[in-house]
Amino acid sequence: xxxxxxxxxxxxxxxxxxxxxxxxxxxxxxxxxxxxxxxxxxxxxxxxxxxxxxxxxxxxxxxxxxxxxxxxxxxxxxxxxxxxxxxxxxxxxxxxxxxxxxxxxxxxxxxxxxxxxxxxxxxxxxxxxxxxxxxxxxxxxxxxxxxxxxxxxxxxxxxxxxxxxxxxxxxxxxxxxxxxxxxxxxxxxxxxxxxxxxxxxxxxxxxxxxxxxxxxxxxxxxxxxxxxxxxxxxxxxxxxxxxxxxxxxxxxxxxxxxxxxxxxxxxxxxxxxxxxxxxxxxxxxxxxxxxxxxxxxxxxxxxxxxxxxxxxxxxxxxxxxxxxxxxxxxxxxxxxxxxxxxxxxxxxxxxxxxxxxxxxxxxxxxxxxxxxxxxxxxxxxxxxxxxxxxxxxxxxxxxxxxxxxxxxxxxxxxxxxxxxxxxxxxxxxxxxxxxxxxxxxxxxxxxxxxxxxxxxxxxxxxxxxxxxxxxxxxxxxxxxxxxxxxxxxxxxxxxxxxxxxxxxxxxxxxxxxxxxxxxxxxxxxxxxxxxxxxxxxxxxxxxxxxxxxxxxxxxxxxxxxxxxxxxx
Amino acid sequence: xxxxxxxxxxxxxxxxxxxxxxxxxxxxxxxxxxxxxxxxxxxxxxxxxxxxxxxxxxxxxxxxxxxxxxxxxxxxxxxxxxxxxxxxxxxxxxxxxxxxxxxxxxxxxxxxxxxxxxxxxxxxxxxxxxxxxxxxxxxxxxxxxxxxxxxxxxxxxxxxxx
Amino acid sequence: xxxxxxxxxxxxxxxxxxxxxxxxxxxxxxxxxxxxxxxxxxxxxxxxxxxxxxxxxxxxxxxxxxxxxxxxxxxxxxxxxxxxxxxxxxxxxxxxxxxxxxxxxxxxxxxxxxxxxxxxxxxxxxxxxxxxxxxxxxxxxxxxxxxxxxxxxxxxxxxxxxxxxxxxxxxxxxxxxxxxxxxxxxxxxxxxxxxxxxxxxxxxxxxxxxxxxxxxxxxxxxxxxxxxxxxxxxxxxxxxxxxxxxxxxxxxxxxxxxxxxxxxxxxxxxxxxxxxxxxxxxxxxxxxxxxxxxxxxxxxxxxxxxxxxxxxxxxxxxxxxxxxxxxxxxxxxxxxxxxxxxxxxxxxxxxxxxxxxxxxxxxxxxxxxxxxxxxxxxxxxxxxxxxxxxxxxxxxxxxxxxxxxxxxxxxxxxxxxxxxxxxxxxxxxxxxxxxxxxxxxxxxxxxxxxxx
Lengths: 568, 162, 452
Description:
The structure holds 3 protein chains of 3 kinds.
Chain A: E1 9-14, E2 17-22, H1 27-33, E3 57-63, E4 83-85, E5 90-91, E6 102-104, H2 108-123, H3 139-147, E7 165-166, E8 171-173, H4 183-191, E9 197-200, E10 207-210, H5 222-227, E11 233-235, E12 248-253, E13 262-268, E14 271-277, H6 290-293, E15 309-310, E16 313-314, H7 317-330, E17 335-339, H8 345-358, E18 361-364, H9 384-389, H10 402-409, E19 415-419, H11 430-434, E20 437-442, H12 447-451, E21 454-457, E22 466-469, E23 474-478, H13 491-501, H14 510-520, E24 537-538
Parallel strand pairs in A: 1-6, 17-18, 17-19, 19-20, 20-21
Antiparallel strand pairs in A: 1-2, 3-4, 3-5, 3-6, 7-8, 8-11, 9-10, 12-13, 13-14, 15-16, 15-21, 22-23, 23-24
Chain B: H1 5-14, H2 25-36, H3 41-50, H4 55-64, E1 76-81, H5 84-88, H6 91-101, E2 115-120, E3 132-134, E4 137-139, H7 144-161
Parallel strand pairs in B: 1-2
Antiparallel strand pairs in B: 1-3, 3-4
Chain C: H1 23-28, H2 33-38, H3 43-53, H4 65-70, E1 81-86, H5 95-102, H6 104-118, E2 122-127, H7 132-147, E3 163-168, H8 178-185, H9 200-203, E4 210-214, H10 215-227, H11 229-233, E5 236-237, E6 240-241, E7 243-250, E8 256-261, H12 267-274, E9 284-288, E10 297-298, E11 302-309, E12 312-319, H13 327-332, E13 341-346, H14 351-365, H15 371-389, H16 396-405, H17 415-429, H18 431-435, H19 437-443
Parallel strand pairs in C: 1-2, 1-4, 2-3, 7-13
Antiparallel strand pairs in C: 5-6, 7-8, 9-10, 9-13, 11-12
Helix pairs in contact in C: 3-6, 5-6, 6-10, 14-15, 14-17, 15-16, 15-17, 16-17
């Protein structure tokens, strides 16, 4: 691992507490480090600073020096250097740490400033939190408890602005709730590079809008909903489905590509309601793609596999595992395993164990698409690197399962274990598949599961815990969000049972399994599942440095070499 | 956009006055409004393409500045100063006179299509209040009587044209 | 004491019969001679002259011009720009209009001297949209000057090149704020920038070091180059040097523009003698001394305190009429010289209605970028309009003041103060009129002149 360059540290004083922070860090962030909350609306750590909401006004001072001699001016009362306080309040977001900076956030003036801004923001804002979908995660509502007046002095007509405007397929706008912080505009321009949002008209009549005839429909549009501090922008998928305070938050990972955006899954009573990004400054900052946010729908999708089947008839897990074991025996020496880049590291490890036990050849299905240079990479498998690290595959997967097809044609493969992969889609033809018996482990039905002799329903990424290794070789963990679907079994359990059917023994619980992993997989040496940091852990990628990975540049990722030609 | 060659050549002349094309937004909008009379969405998109901007960038600007109009106005544009110095000397009466003379309301096109009367903020000629701009011409000390006189003149010109 | 005579430096030829705005006339009157001499001097010397002159900006803030120039980042390697603030948008102010319409070459000469002094190769004149003729006149004058080699790639054969372009605004007061103006010139909504970090002297137009100077200020620069900084500093009063154009409007007999040595004339002399006093049968009630945003002065109030005269501190006890019309004196009594726009109101004016007019202006002109100004300015307008056109409550004056107090000092730009000061001062000085407005409306004759 490469240590980042140490930033220059300066000592600042915030509400009397001294702390060393990187020079130039803004006061909102510096205050956060000493546990002081500086309320704000327009400031966002990953967007440019505009300073328009004025909620983060603070008092600022610098140590006094004699203008002529530059000698410190001492305060006889305290014996310390005198502080020259600027009478006018300053915005925290645009005040940067420099040596000796003094900040006060708890003075009557600061309180008065915050109360003033709160009152101003509320005079034209609907006061109808009970019918607003943002309630519970509304910054305006939160700050009202600290700085609200509790009653309104405003007896004039409120401004009337458009309600319920569809900005795009996934984002709804209520202009009357908009506090004109411009976060969404800056996001669209600076991060999504899709400059379609803006303010029209002026003064208090300023209105957020999308250019007529254009839509906010880029694949990052829902991030505007995440960063909207109020109920102006809401998700068409989520709005009015569930009050946020009922929802449980579980850390997860976006499985749509090898970026591995960190996410939070919001669920209640076994049902997932939405996925939102989780901040990881090394991976996805505070963003994720819209396309990754709908993946939770696989959990209850119509094509979900929930019945164990043997030869097309409903069965039970142990009977099916036994049937699979019989197939292995009858095809001894002629078993192939199609593993998956969507499986977790743990599952890939057990798949490898199974392959070893069966002397089976291993294959992986490649899944490649155009990268968007932001948070969807060219490799649409979340965990190809996990397959490399665990030794499931020795090299990057070919575009199609051509080698496996040839082996079938040559009569060298009689049984195939497919871990969630549709072999038709991966390049095998009907003739080839007719020659083999398939044991299928997976979550959704497809042509391969239809044709399989044995179907073992398993769990989606939201129903189990595990790890992925992303394009940076960062090991990241995801946690079980909701209980597994009835009829489906944890992949690790299924794989362990299959290994057992070959006469072997492997653990299927994560913690004991990680002991084995750490012992047997060199790159995972010091790791345990429990101590893996929430922001992940960079693995030593040296053994695979020369491989021609397909990913191009994305946020926080530059490929080591020129990416291989993408053939979708 | 069907702009005249003269306007197009002035547009091409003004863009290189600035190191970034975006700076030419206001000049282009002025030139187009001078020719067409208002700024349509088509004009916004044309300017955006010409200056390599997104339409929203131009739309934001058009709607900020009151001098840009998004729909046609009357043949003549009567702008009465509303701000304090003019108001102190009867600006509101002046404005009402024009409205009455042309049987119209603020911001609307008069029924004969001849004028649009508007209140505008300070025209920076406070020493000769109340002032009125009719198209590009400033008229000073426009009391009700002078408003009537100016209105008669506009009506006479309209008649002569017909 | 009789009022001093006008001293016309900037307005020397304004309204002079036969004086036209073409180059020939300007040259005939000695035009561009100062520039020729200035171009023979080291640029740094010219900056020094301006510093010595004590010239303070005439746009509104009164910031020392020489200091502004010396803050310029000259080491960045980036081009340096001059932006001429010809947006003249503070209500009550109309001096730059006459300079540009009647004597544009004076401005161009001032610009070219300033550019040479500061190594500026590109100047923009940002002229308000409401001056279409002014823009055309300036463009014609620049073309004439270019043809005569006073502007262009090789000015006066010196090898130094500088271009001037005219850029028209489109009706926005906020473009008078220098960073709003810069944004507007860049083709964006004129949202003033946060300072720090965007000080024009360092990160101005196109993120390059930029000087933003007012039209009148630049004409003074030309005069300073002519007579020298020290001679200029002897005009006017200490720290308030040179002449100043005072624009008088409202309820006086002879409104108009008058140029005096700064601080040599009092408010009383200006209004009673120079402007001929109140209209027949009326008395002065209030005056705004420096553009509509300046805090109002109430005739009859007195200002007491100590002030520096030479090296001594002396007591002063002034009526409104006694106040010298300079930056420091007006600042001492809690208002400002601002842009030099003096708006006079007589006893026919109800101050609630006057404030409602002003509040409507500021609500219309707030850019809407930052919360206190955006919401506060419209709220104040709504309150004061309701008082006039609907139900007035005795507590509305205090509510207005409280709203204004939540704006001033908390916004991105000085518009916050500009929109708050009228309300704060009207309510403070005419509180009874606000308290009693409901009753006044019931009993009094409706005002002869509608203000809102």
